[in-house]
Write a structure and sequence with these properties.
With 312 residues, the chain is α/β, with parallel strands linked by helices. It is 43% helix and 12% strand.
């Protein structure tokens, strides 16, 4: 995979895509570039104000874009269900691409509408439920893909199956690392189950390296730590690559031909650069842990991710 960039994205005409967290940063760039290549794209965002503003911006940048905003709060399972149920008028019984991009990082301890630790609940459980609810459309679509955005910081911690909600103790960065490991374990188990069912749907993962987005400043801003926020913003300016570079791994995993199931795509040198296969911690390919996390996620969300291939 040599120096892959957006010019390598194949024609996406006729394909329908959902991108979560598409109001800014990596998600916005991903949605914009898919639309630029002809895909019909749903910008799935929590904030109606930011989502509609992003849609206006996208249409200004890509006048031919077929795109729309739809409300989705991954920290509220009722919102996830409403979004999935309302998608029928956009793509009927088909869906070519689901990009599980939205996320939160290193927040002070917070809880979702359903009582889950915010990072685990948003980054993993929300996307697990969304994928499960959309699986019938994906399974019915030849060449469909599910791309879940993790992070190189998954290496901070494996999931703790005995304390998924960090109830015994809460450390923001460990909780973030666990949620990103959960993203990779989910991708691993989804890819395994798809293969076992004989499905051609590809489940892959990506990470942005160190990309300049608003993700890094959200936690310190919530706490009013202005000096820490300035330090983070300085690091973003001096070290991070722009969101356009950070989104390349996601776009590559979503569109490059012959993408390997359970691939993990990120910047070549870890922080920035052209997409390549990326390092991942060994525990993110542990079959037993992945299977147990899947079962726990079904129980917590009430969503069964059944994989039945049409016509099989």
């Amino acid at each position: 995979m040599t120096r892959w960039n957006t010019s390598h994205i194949p024609d996406q005409t006729g394909r329908a895509a959902v991108v979560t967290g598409a109001n800014s940063g990596l998600g916005y760039v991903t949605a914009r570039e898919l639309a630029r290549r002809g895909a019909r794209v749903v910008l799935a965002c929590r904030s109606a104000e930011r989502g509609t503003a992003a849609l206006s911006r996208l249409r200004a940048e890509v006048p031919t874009a077929e795109a729309e905003f739809r409300a989705l709060d991954l920290a509220d399972l009722a919102s996830v269900r409403r979004f999935a149920e309302g998608l029928a008028d956009f793509c009927d019984d088909r869906l070519d691409l689901l990009v599980n991009n939205a996320g939160v990082m290193a927040l002070p301890q917070r809880f979702t509408a359903d009582g889950f630790e915010m990072q685990f609940g948003t980054n993993h459980l929300g996307h697990f439920a969304l994928t499960g609810l959309l699986l019938p459309k994906l399974l019915a679509t030849p060449g469909a893909r599910v791309v879940t955005v993790s992070s190189m910081l998954h290496a901070l911690a494996d999931v703790d199956l005995g304390d998924l909600n960090s109830e015994r103790s809460y450390h923001r960065w460990l909780a973030y690392g666990r949620s990103k490991s959960a993203n990779l374990l989910f991708t691993h188990e989804l890819a395994r189950r798809l293969a076992a069912a004989g499905s051609q749907v590809v489940a892959a993962a990506a990470h942005p390296g160190y990309a300049h987005t608003n993700l890094q400043t959200a936690g310190v801003r919530m706490e009013g730590r202005q000096s820490a926020e300035r330090v983070v913003e300085l690091g973003n300016r001096l070290i991070a690559q722009p969101a356009e570079g950070g989104a390349l791994g996601t776009l590559c995993a979503a569109t490059a031909p012959h993408m390997r199931p359970d691939a993990f795509i990120g910047p070549r040198n870890g922080l920035r650069g052209a997409p390549a296969r990326s390092f991942r911690a060994p525990w993110t390919r542990d079959d037993r842990t992945a299977e147990r996390l899947w079962a726990a996620s079904e129980e917590l969300t009430g969503v069964r991710c059944d994989i039945t291939v049409p016509g099989a």
